[in-house]
Write a structure and sequence with these properties.
With 128 residues, the protein is an alpha+beta fold. The chain folds into two domains: 2-62, no CATH class; 76-127. The chain contains four helices and three strands; from the N terminus they run αααββαβ. Strands 2-1-3 form a three-stranded antiparallel beta sheet, covered by helices on one side.
Length: 128
């Protein structure tokens, strides 16, 4: 991008200028008029490009933000449970039936380690 190359050039120029002025021998560097004119022209161009970027940023900030609807997530939650003979009851909730079912079976399998007692056909689910 044009702005990036100009920005890097000015940064390098500023860094070398600072280095030349602040070097250990305390010598100052004298620039020719043509060098100064070139630097001033680049500085002017950078200022105008910064103004363009400010305008773009302002326009971007004024754009309407997308509205995220949470109605689907809060309007209906599912609950599932399973009773096992030896390991007790396992309950889980989710925003979908499959999420609640998966969580319930996951809890059951984690505790009992048996797919026989944690069978999906034994799980009951309902909405809250």
């Amino acid at each position: 991008m044009k702005l990036t190359s100009h920005f890097i050039a000015v940064c390098l120029l500023a860094a070398t200028t600072t280095t030349a002025i602040a070097d250990e021998t305390h010598e100052t560097t004298v620039y020719s008029n043509s060098d100064m004119k070139q630097v001033l022209a680049e500085l002017h161009e950078l200022k105008s490009e910064v103004q363009e970027l400010k305008q773009l940023l302002l326009m971007h900030n004024q754009m309407p933000k997308p509205v995220v609807s949470h109605t689907n997530r809060t309007s209906k939650r599912w609950s599932c449970f399973i009773n096992t003979a030896f390991d007790g009851t396992f309950i889980a909730t989710g925003f979908t039936k499959n999420e609640a079912l998966g969580k319930t079976l996951g809890k059951c399998n984690h505790k009992s380690g048996s797919s026989v007692s944690c069978n999906e056909s034994k799980v009951a689910c309902s909405t809250e």
